Amino acid sequence: ASFRVDSKETAESFIKGSLLLSGNMSLKGQEPATVAMTVNRTGYEAGNVSVKLAYDGSILDIDVSNTTLTTGTANGTKMIVTRDGGNVTVDEKEVATISDSNNVMIIRYNDGTFESLFSTAGLKNLLAEEINSNN
Asked: Which of 29, 43, 83, 128 is most buried, taking the most CB atoms under 10 A from its CB?
């Protein structure tokens, strides 16, 4: 998602702010879930979005800033992705690396297996970087 404010803002003079949304969800046959989302605008073209989803005794944290996507769970699993790559850890021990392979982000696990994560172009959009004209 994106949000654009067409105004007289400049890098020196811009609107700063935070927005917090929270709620509960209950689907038939499923445990209730709660969600909290915080959006912070900290600079002219800077900020972050944080989402916490709690369900069935589990918690998923997602944080997206202009340069990094971080996801984590209460059991110690964490994934950090930047424009150039990243890693997956369990209890702070690296179990996989993430790298760009022909414009697709690939997770390569220590046991030799791999899977695609998402396209590099999608990551660049997510992390607020304009895609250059040759993509």
From this structure: 83
Q: CA 80, 15, 21: angle at the middle one, nearest 5?
A: 55
Query: What whole-number distance in Å separates Cα of residue 55 and Cα of residue 59?
Result: 6
pLDDT at 83 over 50: yes
Render pLDDT for 31-55 as a digit per residue (tens, 0 to 9).
899 999 999 998 888 889 999 999 8
**Cα 17 to Cα 25: distance, rounded to the nearest angstrom:** 27
Q: How far apart are CA 55 and CA 70, in angstroms?
A: 19
Is residue 124 a contact partner of residue 67, using CB atoms and an 8 Å limit? no
pTM: 0.67
